[in-house]
Write a structure and sequence with these properties.
single chain; alpha/beta; 6-stranded mixed β-sheet; 22 helices
Length: about 750
């Protein structure tokens, strides 16, 4: 069975996988617009509003509303049987318009990949595309068509629990990886709802849902670029954020939803609210009741009401009273229908209700998960070369309650992830050790949250009897994700007490940290020689961690955010603005704290390897730049160690004298390279001159004439290369920096 059919031209575009935005040819675009207009001409006001109603599986869903044309989209449908039932009901409606089925598919469907923050540590758009493609393949197999991802929210404050869903603190890294995720999801068969638009990652005090205050120029420079990259990559939709931005809730913010997203960037897909986000306008204090909330949201540019039921209840009266022009409702329905047409939903067969997700994880998805996870593990420190496991090691004590806790390997937002699919770190170590004739014991030392230490003596005894201790501690998944903001980011419970006791044994210790954020390590960073950040590593987490621990894989990940010494330093980020009083040793009246160092524990871009890399002959190939030119920097990187490895070569710039204060450093390009032991390679990094500027509050982009300082290295402390000179000042109005590449807009 099929829905309202497209022409052969449009079907051909869809068959080639070119189903959204810039990828689709002008002829197919025009055909879709004709079909949409034809359909709109047949629709009643109520049917148009029905397309704007997004309801979740379970209460308050009424299945008969699907057949009545009162439901345009459905979420939390995660099995083929329910999807097929809803599709059959939609075909009973007057116009047979298919619903779109959405689900939070963030880092996997059945096969779980590392959480997005961990994935970002790979500094690899290829791996981001691969992970997203697999997540989409599995979800689309059972009829899911739309994911509420990627999260493009930049965050500089790891007290915020949802930092785990994003890419960290840098707008360039975030833009590259957000685009890669959109592309990967699309290739695997899912449309994206890039979220949360915008500024959601900078709440006051790191408290989820709290208000944000971000100057417009900072929004344009720091928080909006990843969203703009999502438009350019072809994101089908956007999700409005819960938070208020500078006093105006995002769900009723025409500057964000209309002026920036549509008028400046040229986005012509649709915007959905977050869960009951329109209703929350009452709580924000800008709407007296549901009718006013619905009116303000749709006039601002929110096309779809997720789980609020305010559009379906109030918009008919709002239109008939003249408070909302019917043209506004029609345009919102047009955006929804256009997206459904682009996705091929009108021409797609119903899902086979017998399909099940238990066909995954497959050997292929496990191999992909293992590959991705290996490259997300950040070796924070490795004194005395505790890792990899030395040839003389004959016994390992694995200590910690998280070592064999599959749910804590999956982390929050695990879609259809199953505990029984997961290879835990304990199991991964046991499998690898067995082949090497190494004995492995396990001692939890405490319960999952380390509330008591009755089991500590047994753990200490196990450590004393072993050649090597692998301690697996960190943050249980319940302490991360949405609604999991933390005022204290220390290791919870009595974990520090346990780790101090293990350190006192004098045995070599490798600490594997699980978690969704940097954690305060305090004196443990000095007491424990080797620390590996494993994030929430997913279904193949144990296998991948064992690969790195035993040296079968060489760690190559880099921190996508700054690792603070203490929560009192937050928000903390490498690309901060300079001050008139830079930090000076032994001078109280300069930038700093009286009770802590001003520097982080580990800088942005940090990550060690089992080999070493040397940078030499760095040079600016293009020392003079005018409009349209590209800054090109060359450097030779040599693997000076005895193991093959990968290095992320990072290029940073600084505008030292400008009309407004500019960051001390900004990541502008990076490349991940593989080098055999002793091998050298010349790397050339390129940055268009138009990416060396900054925004004014009105959205104008300015590249000012003058010197640009250049730095190249393996982290944000990269060494200086020299200066390039920009010869001409360039000013680009907001209307000329469109992100949409739709043919009709070229």
């Amino acid at each position: 069975m099929r829905f309202f059919c497209l022409s052969a031209l449009a079907r051909a575009a869809l068959a080639c996988g070119l189903f959204f935005g810039a990828a689709m040819g002008a002829g197919a675009q025009d055909e879709i617009e004709r079909r949409v207009e034809n359909l709109l001409g047949q629709m009643t006001l109520e049917e148009k509003i029905g397309q704007l109603n997004l309801i979740s599986h379970g209460p308050p869903l009424r299945w008969e509303d699907i057949a009545a044309g009162r439901t345009g989209a459905l979420l939390n449908f995660n099995n083929a049987e329910d999807v097929a039932r809803a599709q059959a009901l939609a075909r009973q409606s007057r116009l047979k318009i298919p619903p779109i089925f959405g689900l939070d598919v963030l880092h996997g469907f059945r096969t779980q990949f590392p959480l997005p923050l961990g994935e970002a540590a790979a500094f690899s758009p290829r791996l981001s595309r691969l992970a997203s493609e697999w997540a989409a393949k599995e979800a689309s197999h059972v009829g899911v068509q739309w994911t509420f991802a990627p999260m493009a929210d930049l965050s500089r404050d790891s007290r915020w629990g949802r930092i785990v869903e994003g890419f960290g603190e840098d707008p360039h890294l975030g833009s590259v990886l957000t685009a890669a995720r959109v592309e990967g999801f699309r290739k695997g068969g899912l449309a994206t709802a890039t979220k949360h638009f915008a500024g959601y990652g900078a709440p006051q005090g790191g408290r989820d849902y709290d208000t944000t205050y971000i100057p417009p120029a900072e929004m344009y420079d720091i928080y909006l670029p990843p969203f703009r990259a999502a438009v350019k990559a072809g994101s089908a939709s956007f999700m409005a954020a819960f938070n208020a931005l500078n006093g105006m809730p995002s769900t009723a913010n025409p500057w964000l939803l209309t002026e920036v997203l549509r008028d400046q960037w040229g986005f012509d897909g649709f915007v959905t609210s977050d869960w009951a986000g329109i209703h929350e306008l009452i709580g924000h204090g800008i709407a007296a009741d549901g009718a006013e909330a619905a009116r303000k949201a749709i006039l601002a540019g929110v096309d779809m009401d997720m789980m609020g039921q305010l559009y379906i209840k109030h918009l008919p009266d709002e239109v008939r009273s003249g408070r909302v022009p019917e043209a506004v409702v029609t345009e919102a329905a047009r955006r929804v229908l256009r997206t459904k047409m682009r996705l091929g939903l009108f021409d797609r067969p119903d899902v086979d209700p017998s399909r099940v997700d238990s066909v995954f994880p497959s050997p292929e998805s496990r191999a992909a998960a293992r590959e991705v996870t290996r490259e997300t593990l950040v070796l924070l420190q490795n004194r005395d070369n505790v890792l990899p496991v030395a040839p003389g090691i004959r016994s390992i004590a694995v200590v910690g309650p998280l070592a064999d806790s599959p749910r804590d390997h999956l982390g929050p937002h695990a879609a259809r992830g199953h505990d029984e699919d997961t290879v835990t770190i304990l199991n991964g170590i046991r499998r690898r050790a067995q082949g090497a004739g190494i004995a492995v014991t396990h001692a939890p030392a405490c319960d999952q949250f380390c509330r008591t230490t009755e089991q500590l003596p047994a753990a200490v005894a196990a450590a004393q009897a072993a050649d090597l201790v692998v301690a697996v501690f960190g943050e249980p998944q319940e302490l991360s994700g949405e609604a999991a903001s933390r005022a204290r980011t220390t290791l919870n419970g009595k974990q520090v007490e346990v780790l101090e006791a293990l350190a006192a044994t004098g045995k070599p210790i490798a600490l594997v940290l699980l978690g969704g954020r940097p954690l305060e390590l305090g004196a443990l960073a000095d007491r424990i020689p080797s620390i590996l950040m494993a994030w929430y590593p997913g279904t193949e987490g144990g296998t991948a961690v064992a690969d790195v621990l035993f040296g079968d894989a060489n760690p190559s990940a880099k921190l996508p955010l700054t690792w603070p010494r203490t929560a009192g330093q937050m928000p903390i980020y490498y690309n901060r603005l300079p001050t008139g009083r830079p930090t000076l040793a032994n001078n109280r009246f300069t930038l700093g704290y009286i009770d802590e160092a001003v520097t982080p524990l580990y800088p942005f871009g940090w990550g060690l390897s089992y080999t070493s890399f040397a940078y030499r002959d760095a040079a600016i190939v293009t020392p003079r730049l005018s409009s349209g030119d590209t800054l090109e920097v060359s450097v030779t990187v040599t693997n000076t160690g005895s193991r093959d490895g990968q290095e992320v070569v990072q290029l940073y710039t600084r505008d030292p004298v400008a009309s407004r204060s500019r960051p001390l450093r900004e990541l502008k390009a990076f490349e991940k390279i593989a080098l055999k032991a002793g091998e050298a390679k010349e790397v050339r990094l390129r940055v268009p001159v138009e990416e060396l500027g900054f925004h004014l509050d009105d959205g104008t982009y300015v590249v000012e004439a003058g010197d640009i300082e250049v730095f190249v290295g393996g982290n944000s402390l990269a060494g200086s290369v020299g200066k390039a000179q920009i010869t001409d000042t360039v000013r680009i109005p907001p209307s000329e920096r469109r992100a949409s590449l739709s043919p009709k807009r070229l």
